[in-house]
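Inputs:
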Amino acid sequence: MHDEQPPAAVEVRGLHVRFGPVVAVDGVDLVARAGAATALLGRNGAGKSTTMRVLAGVVPPTAGEVRVAGRDAVRDPLGVKRAVGYCPDVGGLVPRATPWEHLQLAARLRRLRDWEPGARDLLERFELGDVAHRVTSGFSHGMSRRLSVLLAAFHAPDVLLLDEPFDGVDPVGVEATMDVVADARSRGATVLLSTHLRELAVQACGEAVVLRGGSRVAVLDAAAMTGEEGARAYRSLLD
Ligand SMILES: Nc1ncnc2c1ncn2[C@@H]1O[C@H](COP(=O)(O)OP(=O)(O)OP(=O)(O)O)[C@@H](O)[C@H]1O
């Protein structure tokens, strides 16, 4: 039979992650296809960031199968790191470097050519053009978040991983992030986005995976989470 669905860029089966005695992820399955955006939702400590770190190739799975952009996260974590654009939930910026220096470094590491016009455009879209040559140590939380999203998207990765991209971000930053998600989808990339903000998740993503205590408790169409009824349905999944 002919498979009409776009290829799966992210395939996770039976993912477990332990940190000593702590079970952070306890048997998560996840499939995300080319051109799709999926929200990861759940309460504090549900396992969202740990799942994202595994998908980014920065935390190894304790057990399970994880393929990202055709690479195996256990056997080829470096290949996974190269294929994704990852905005971590915290950190990731060099305090003594400017946004432009971050972009220069990323371009050099990834051997990008003619990257400057695209970089300038992104800086303008995220309203970071005026501070492009200021060190990031003085940045506000929201400015740092905006720069982290911008850097994740900069090299047009096959898989874009945004962990809490809206946290503390103003409406301009939210809009720029929505644009980056839409652009990624339209060029056939896959987006995973973790957030506590249900309404923004619904706006950005077609589907939501709800985690609780390290396990997947639901996969929902974003449409099923809209309005008051959607809010109630979502809330009932959290506890
Ligand atoms: N490096 C670590 N060492 C020990 N425990 C960890 C580590 N990282 C995560 N955990 C634990 O794993 C569990 C899941 O954490 P995780 O950060 O993945 O949750 P989250 O859903 O992203 O939460 P939040 O919404 O608060 O960001 C928590 O109990 C957390 O304390």
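Strands lie at 8-19, 22-33, 37-41, 63-68, 71-72, 84-87, 159-163, 190-194, 207-212, 215-221. Flag for discussion at group meeting.
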